[in-house]
Write a structure and sequence with these properties.
Layout (H helix, E strand, L loop, with lengths): L11 E5 L8 E2 L16 E4 L2 H10 L7 E7 L4 E2 L1 H4 L10 E4 L3 E7 L7 H16 L9
Antiparallel strand pairs: 1-4, 2-7, 3-6, 4-7, 5-6
Length: 139
């Protein structure tokens, strides 16, 4: 018996406050939401909703929090901010790339983290900034 192919081998998500259209490409070079807020050398995606939700909740700006389903157009690699020491083995399934991601859908209904948890994460990130501990993605 031959297995039927499925349209998705792996789904990837990108959390943001940017308003994007189907078919649009997410590319490097925009101002980063994290670290030193330089023009981003990398763009990020995750194979887990939880990590994508964090991306949307922590994104800078006043826009609507969004989760897009994206398709990488080139190689992806582990995000070293999360996988080098904090979560060895990449259980968050968080990745980065220098190659664009194509927006292939948007998740409209999803549950965010409790506001207390979001505020605690924002405070922890602010503390790292005060300590001059920057993102490995800024290097």
């Amino acid at each position: 018996m031959q297995a039927n192919p499925t349209p998705f081998a792996q789904s990837y998500f990108h959390g943001t406050k940017a308003e994007l259209k189907l078919g649009e490409l997410i590319q490097v070079g925009n101002q980063s939401n994290f670290g030193e807020r330089k023009n981003a050398k990398y763009i990020f995606l995750s194979a887990t909703m939880d990590a994508a939700i964090w991306g949307a909740e922590l994104a800078i700006g006043e826009g609507h929090k969004r989760i897009y389903i994206v398709e990488p157009t080139g190689p992806i690699e582990d995000d070293p901010d999360l996988t080098d020491k904090k979560f060895p083995g990449n259980p968050t399934k968080s990745y980065r790339s220098i190659h664009p991601f194509k927006v292939i859908g948007e998740l409209i209904t999803w549950q965010g983290h409790p506001i207390e948890q979001v505020n605690a994460m924002k405070a922890a990130l602010a503390k790292l900034k005060e300590q001059n501990i920057n993102s490995l993605n800024d290097k």
